[in-house]
Specification:
Elements lengths: L1 H11 L7 E6 L5 E8 L2 E7 L2 E8 L7 E7 L3 E2 L3 H11 L7 E13 L2 E10 L2 E10 L8 E4 L3 E2 L9 H7 L4 E8 L1 E2 L1
Antiparallel strand pairs: 1-4, 1-13, 2-3, 2-12, 3-6, 4-5, 5-7, 7-8, 8-9, 9-10, 10-12, 11-12
Length: 183
């Protein structure tokens, strides 16, 4: 999720085109994935449906912005029963169907890197996060977005204490994002 937003913001920090441009995330060529450690190893998953817009101001990159919305119902871990459990008990998609990110600040940190600070809202809780963006010199390539692991508990995404103890589910969730966006 976060990576998508950072990738889009990275576009705003590069190139020498027109001053203001709008890019839409291409979900067919992008990935928002996650990994959570538990007793038996790692559980991997992704979100199949998401949208996003990147507003790029090339003359003033700090005035660029990113907005992303993820359809939580599209969660896919490869195990239907687990997906249903996550949609219901953990995410409560009936009440919280979307995960959103809206940038607050964009900062170029190097020739091919930047930071995007913004509000991540998940499960009814909003927290500021920092996305680190690496963008290639080839505009057609994927942009990589990284962030420190998210803590599930900070967003109220917890099972019962006994279930978490028995399954040894980690609080940290690694987020992996690769984004491709088009004008």
């Amino acid at each position: 999720m976060k990576r998508c937003l950072f990738v889009l913001a990275a576009i705003a920090l590069t190139a020498t085109a027109q001053a203001n441009e709008t890019f839409k995330i291409d979900p067919a060529r992008s990935t928002i994935a996650f990994k959570v450690r538990h007793m038996l190893g790692n559980a991997h998953g992704k979100f199949a449906k998401f949208t996003g817009t990147i507003e790029v101001d090339r003359e003033h990159p700090d005035q660029s912005s990113v907005q992303v919305s993820i359809d939580v119902r599209s969660i896919d871990t490869g195990i239907a029963k687990r997906d249903d459990h996550l949609r219901g008990e953990l995410f409560d998609v009936a009440k919280y169907p979307q995960i959103t990110f809206k940038s607050r600040r964009v900062k170029q940190t190097g020739a091919n890197s930047g930071e995007i600070a913004g509000d991540l809202t998940m499960h009814g809780v909003t927290r500021e996060i920092i996305l680190n963006v690496e963008f290639p010199s080839n505009p057609g390539a994927h942009w990589r977005v990284t962030t420190p692991p998210l803590k599930r508990s900070q967003f109220g995404l917890v099972f019962s204490k006994s279930a978490e103890t028995v399954s040894m589910i980690a609080d940290d969730v690694a987020v992996e994002i690769e984004i491709e966006a088009r004008r």
